[in-house]
Amino acid sequence: MGYTADIKRELLSIPVKHACCRQMFVSGLLFGSEPTPYGELCVRFTDPDILDQTVLLLPAPYKKNFRTALKTVGKNVFSELILPSREASDRHQFLLDHPEEAITFTCSNCQSSFIRGVFVSCGSVTAPQQDSHLECRMDEVFADVFKEKLQEAGLSPGLIQRGRKTGVYLKNNAQIQDMLGLMGASRAEFEYINEKILRSLVKEDHQITNYEIGNMARAVEAAHREIMAIEHLKALGRFSSLPDPIRYSANLRLEHPELSLKALAQLHTPPISSSGLSHRMRVIMQMGQLLGD
């Protein structure tokens, strides 16, 4: 679970600024919860620090009188977050009774917050070097709703029965990459992109040197920084104020995060030089850094 835990830490480090997004994050979190015999709700984590990070994102009413516990299941020890508040139980029941009404995306970040909450509470994913598999396990009624929400986001999930739980899964590398990006796990998304590039080159029987691998890794890292700067400008509402040519290049970068600067430049209509595109990206990076400060 080490790779999954790292992704959850990354997701939980993303600030949730709006009340509507916090509500969607909590709703997603409750998709993976289980009622206790005492009418409380329990969310189980593999790492205590992930539990601690999750608590920090909960609205005050939901963490009223919360407590933690350790639970041993076979050879595994889990950290449990127990939510006894009336607000948590009422929200859980509302999600069960009226899922379509309960899961509504008020702003552009609500969808990401909801999917992030589901993954944090009950998701797992393999490392990109392994066979691709991402899965979230929950009660069947929630699995049907979650599958529908992922389909609305352009993904093609499947369902599988796992004992009392139903798994909502993705097996395709590109689909997992898209979901990681949708949640905001940009580091993991680029690891999948990098692995996809390396596999495609090996499949084509290219002779890859360590030097070439290093160049590819640096190109992916540069594209990652560019996309982070673009997303930062969008979050601040400053993206629309960019000059049209720079905004055009930025949108192409978002659509093609796996491409080198040279390949991305050739996609422009009309094509531009690599140095010209590099200049545009530097402007974006400088603006993102300036506004970040």
Describe this structure in words.
There is one protein chain. The chain is α+β, with helices and mostly antiparallel strands and 293 residues long. It has 2 domains: 2-182, Homing endonucleases (Endonuclease I-creI); 209-292, no CATH class. 58% of the residues lie in helices and 14% in strands. It contains 13 helices and 8 strands. Strand 5 and strand 6 form a beta hairpin. Helix 8 (173-183) packs antiparallel against helix 9 (186-203) and helix 12 packs across helix 13. The chain is globular, with a radius of gyration of 21 Å.
Number of helical regions: 13
Number of domains: 2
Distance between the termini: 35 Å
What's the CATH topology label of the largest domain? Endonuclease I-creI
The largest β sheet comes out as: 4 strands, antiparallel
Pairing-aware structural class of the strands and helices?
A: alpha+beta
| Secondary structure: helix percent | 55-70%
Strand order of the largest sheet: 1-2-4-3
Give the secondary structure arrangement, pairings included.
Blueprint: H1 2-12, H2 19-31, E1 34-35, E2 41-45, H3 48-57, E3 67-73, E4 76-83, H4 86-97, H5 99-102, H6 110-122, E5 123-125, E6 134-138, H7 140-152, E7 158-162, E8 165-170, H8 173-183, H9 186-203, H10 210-235, H11 244-255, H12 261-267, H13 274-292
Antiparallel strand pairs: 1-2, 2-4, 3-4, 5-6, 6-8, 7-8
Quick rundown:
The chain has 293 residues and is α+β, with helices and mostly antiparallel strands. The chain contains 13 helices and eight strands.
